[in-house]
Amino acid sequence: MILGLGIDLCDIRRIGRVIDVFGERFLNRVFTPQERVTAERRYGQTRINTYAKRWAAKEACAKALGTGFSQNVFHSQIGVVNLLTGQPTLLLTNGAKKRLQLIETQANVLNSVIVLSLTDEYPYAQAQVMIEGYPSSMI
């Protein structure tokens, strides 16, 4: 059962300009430490593309949660992580995690899975998030 679906398209150039203007203040406020480590291992345009894809993932996730960035859901609570296979997924904390738990409870789901797809083709980055769950009665 699909519990939530979100998509976002962002302009990589815009993210680059924001980083140029606000630098560390923006990066620390929006991205998790792990996301920053991942992006900072890259150079030049690839570094900016990495941040832009993660920005799009956060936006898409907030849409899938049904809140946007309100109701105690913030950018820094949604982090892109990679499974051992390299596949990206999301790790939610604090308000974002509580929102997911509320969605699970309302849908009578014990656990959900977040599916994330990322892509970029300069000057755009795109992310799609789907939150899947199975009713408790099926487990």
TrEMBL record:
GO cellular component terms attached to this protein's record: cytoplasm
Location of this chain's protein in the cell: Cytoplasm
Obligatory cofactor(s): Mg(2+)
Broad enzyme group: transferase
A Pfam cross-reference name: ACPS
Keyword Lipid biosynthesis: yes
Reaction catalyzed: apo-[ACP] + CoA = holo-[ACP] + adenosine 3',5'-bisphosphate + H(+)
Protein's GO biological process: fatty acid biosynthetic process
Gene3D superfamilies noted in UniProt: 4'-phosphopantetheinyl transferase domain
Known EC number: 2.7.8.7
Domain of life: Bacteria
Binding positions for Mg(2+) per the UniProt entry: 8, 59
4'-phosphopantetheinyl transferase domain segment(s): 4-102
Alphabetized GO MF terms: holo-[acyl-carrier-protein] synthase activity; magnesium ion binding
Keywords: Cytoplasm, Fatty acid biosynthesis, Fatty acid metabolism, Lipid biosynthesis, Lipid metabolism, Magnesium, Metal-binding, Transferase
Main function: Transfers the 4'-phosphopantetheine moiety from coenzyme A to a Ser of acyl-carrier-protein.
UniProt similarity note: Belongs to the P-Pant transferase superfamily. AcpS family.
Entry protein name: Holo-[acyl-carrier-protein] synthase
Name of the encoding gene: acpS
